[in-house]
Amino acid sequence: MLAWIRHWALAFAFLLAVLPTVCGVNQPPLKIVRRSGQQMSSSSELEPGGRWEHDSDEEALALEQADPPQVRLQQDDSVEALALAQERDVAAVSLQVAAPPAAAPPPPSPAGQSSSGAAAAMVAAGPRDYTVELLRTMPHADRPWTQGLEFASDGRLIETSGDYPRGSGSFVRVLNPTTGAVAQKVSEGMDGPDGHVFIEGISELDGRFFASTYEDHKAIEYDSNLKFVRSHDFPHIGWGLTHTPDRKSFIATNGSAYVMLLEPGSFKLLSATPATCMGKAVEGLNELEMVDDFLGHGPALLGNIMNTRLVLVLDPSTFACRGAFHLEGLEPSDANENFGFHVANGIAYNTQTRTFWVTGKNWVSMFEVRVSEDPKLATGQGALQMLSMHLSTSPVLVGR
Questions:
Q1: Is residue 306 a contact partner of residue 284, using CB atoms and an 8 Å limit?
Q2: If you average pLDDT over every residue of the chain, what do you get?
Q3: What is the pLDDT of residues 175-211, one digit of tens each?
Q4: What is the three-class DSSP state of 321?
Q5: Does an H or E element contain 277, and which?
Q6: Is the pLDDT of residue 47 over 60?
Q7: pLDDT of residue 382
Q8: What angle do CA 126, 131, 137 make, to 5 degrees?
Q9: Are 132 and 371 in contact (CB under 8 A)?
Q10: CA 296 → CA 38, 118, 154, 304, 312, distances in Å?
Q11: What is the pLDDT of residue 377?
Q12: Which residue from 18, 35, 163, 348 has the fewest beta carbons nearer than 10 Å?
């Protein structure tokens, strides 16, 4: 995800370039063009009726480099358009989704209510804060560039690390969840035409492991013993990867606000839906984790938000948020976290202990934590307050 860091630097430079606009020179409002899921230029507030657009690379660059820069606005929400945009290395097509209407808190759940009903009631009641209790600290062996973290069905702790620094090589490894020691490490299948591929998320499906790659357009398949099986075409930018609750599809992210459903085997795009919270789209969901029963409320999709220590809890059927928790106070912070280094990345749920293992890129430690509900935080404190600040510059979603 070095491109993410480069694009932030470009965005800062661009802001300096548009200072005359801020100072009152008569120029049209500047909108956002996103390529590879990253912000290429600055933006004014989205005007009523304003829309986002996908363009070809040539159009986007021409509009961005115009003097003054301009971007045409055009609505396009179709899955086909998203697929086309990804082929052209344009990750965001549209951020037009209906903002959830305000709803009164639901009545107490009757006895015997299904977990899906409880989950729907939670979403209707609005997002919640969750608390994190530190249980144990474990060494993060060799401090890798963590991209994926998952407990296998047999209890092994699986971690992927991207090829950073460049030339260090991507790999998948098995960790002893008691000591943190490396039990197995493999890099088979990670050679590409330009050297090592950059491995990203990993997910177990039907007894095999599948890992996505960043810009290499490959998904790597391993058997249950992490022996390389084959590579698959992966026509997407790869960030997080997990599976749906029914294990019939993959769930993937690409740095934009979109959460994609992918067909196993072909990795064909089945659908793309923005992750939303507080009436806004949430960009930059990175490492993903599917929890089959989150705190007794049914399935939940968890995701690290890039460049923050926030973890978003989403309804996996709508990708609307149920709540959030944060990882502040675990690993000491680093000033470079605002630029994509040393960021929190990696969530693994242990179904036996009902606890989570969390870590980050080049973190010294891994942490076993327990996540729980706290009624005292249900009014918008803690993680939700941090999330609100994080989303303060995001455009309000307008109707489809």
A1: yes
A2: 77
A3: 999 999 999 999 999 987 666 899 999 999 999 999 9
A4: strand
A5: strand 276-277
A6: no
A7: 87
A8: 145
A9: yes
A10: 36, 9, 22, 21, 17
A11: 58
A12: 18
